[in-house]
Every structure is written in C-alpha cells, then in structure tokens.
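User: quick one - fold this with calcium ion bound?
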Amino acid sequence: NKNEKKVDYKFYDSNLNVILLQKAKIENRLRNAIENNELRLHYQPQVNLNTGEVIGVEALIRWQNSELGHVSPGEFIPIAEESGLIKPIGKWVLQTACKQNKAWQDAGLPPMNMSVNVSRSQLFNKGFLNTVNQVIERTQLDPKYLELEITESSRNDIEELISMLKQLKEIGFKIALDDFGTGYSSLSILDDIPLDNLKIDRSFIQDISKDKNKTALVKNIINIGNDLNLNIIAEGIETTEQHNFLKQNNCNIGQGYLFERPVSGEKIEQLLNVNKVS
Ligand code: C2E
Ligand code: CA
Ligand code: CA
Ligand code: CA
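Assistant: Sure. Structure tokens for the protein plus calcium ion:
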C-alpha cells in the first residue's frame, strides 16, 4: 500500500511537469508565430435566422506550428494572455480582420460586419485605443463594420470596462458581449455597459429542448435582450430543432456548424459570390 501511494504521487508529479513543459514550449513557439507567418484567421458566418442571409463573420484565430502541429486557440490564447503575447497577437488579429473586411468591400461584396474576439487583458491594456485607431487608419475600414466581442466582467473592474467601451463606441465600433450566461455577472450588466449585441453561449443552445430549465433561460435571455434593444446572437447552432426554436422565440441571428464552420477567407468569398448570383 505504501508503495502504491508513492507511485501515485510520482505519477501526479510527472503529469504536472508534462503540462508545465508543454505550456513553456507553446509560449516559446508562440513568441515567433507572427514573424514565421504561422497564424491565420478563419471566419464563421453570422446568419439571419429568418432569411439565411450572411450578415457578418466572426474572425477566429488558427495556429499551425512545425513542431507542435495545430494548436487550438482554447489552448494557446490563455498562454498568450498570461505571457503578454496577447498584445502583438491581438494587434495582428485586428489588423488582419480589418484588412480582410476592407478588401471584401473593395471587391464589391455587400458590406458586412466583422466580429473580433478581444481578451480582457488586451482591452485593459493602456495601448489598446492607440492600436485600434492605428488599425483603422491603416486599413481605412469604416469602424461601424468592426465589432469587438468582449466577455463578462467582474464587479471590480466594471467602471474601467464601461469607460473603455464608451471610448470605443465613440470611435464607431460595435460591442458584443460574448459567452453570455457563463460568467458570474448578473443580468444588470446588460443595462450598465454600452452594448449592441448579446451572444448566448453555446452551452445553452446545446441544451435547447433537452433541459427544461436551460430552455426557459434561453427564452428569457432573448426577451430581456429584445426589451433592451440588443441584437441576440445564438452561438453553436448544430440542429434544425435548435434553429426552429430560436426563430420561433425571436432570436434573429445565429452561428453554428448547421450553417457553416469557420472557414478561410477565400471560402467566404466564394460563399458570398454564390449568394450574390442566386
Ligand atoms: P468563442 O469566441 O466563444 O468562439 C466560438 C467557438 O465555438 C469557436 O471555437 C468556434 O469554432 C466554435 N463553434 C462555432 N460553431 C460551433 C458549433 O456549431 N458547434 C461547436 N461545437 N463549436 C462551434 P475556436 O475557434 O476553437 O475558438 C475557441 C475560443 O478561443 C473562442 O471562443 C475565443 O474565446 C478564443 N479565440 C479564438 N480566436 C481568438 C482571437 O483572435 N482572439 C482572442 N482573444 N480569442 C480568440
Ligand atoms: Ca466570440
Ligand atoms: Ca462561446
Ligand atoms: Ca469566448
């Protein structure tokens, strides 16, 4: 028995080491990802749930490294946040997304929304306003076609968040609250912070008509959002049943594998051109 305990402990210890080593490796490799041209953006269409029309896209980062292979943003974004690498990476994302959206407009495609995920550590960085101003100046994209997706904030930085969002809205950007329902803040945040769109988290959409309480919650979130004049965007729609439920309950915009996975910019262009002809 004594021996078993010892083995268990060692097992745990070496596991932890593997995790730390992997994190260090990711951070190390991530440091050169921009200059080595290893980052890409994929884009997931945001769809009008009643007409099927694509009204925008969400930019989602992809990273392919020669040694590590494909690393998902769920794994490397938190490491980028801890290490400060989120600053140059976030800037690269904004620059690339705005440039792409402007290029689509210049090519004659109907102007649409580009949503970009912004980490809290990025948003609260002193240089953030400078960065977005610079990107807009360089790309010449009208700021109303850029939406910043932020996540729920904790109570203690809510004042700072409101002040930052007001300045961003003054420039002309749109603001969406991402992953709504998963954080710790209450509904009152919706009234406190300046928002355009509210994104209901995928975990709620998944449980539609499987879990009574969650289904009721989704209905209520949509109603409250509509009362506050917010557009409601449902994340992660995978089934026609979910799609129909959302339509019937006045949620008008959605994203999910049912419509399209995140795809390359070229693929988006093809999709939009096909839609234009038909
Ligand atoms: P998110 O902002 O909530 O993005 C939605 C995630 O759900 C994406 O995962 C997307 O590919 C996935 N998804 C979309 N539709 C469906 C569906 O129907 N079913 C399922 N199962 N999944 C769906 P992804 O691309 O792996 O990104 C994960 C997270 O990483 C994002 O969650 C976001 O928080 C973060 N992230 C991604 N790109 C960026 C970025 O450029 N900057 C920052 N700061 N964070 C990013
Ligand atoms: Ca998002
Ligand atoms: Ca989400
Ligand atoms: Ca998120």
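One thing worth noting: The chain is about 50% helix and 20% strand.
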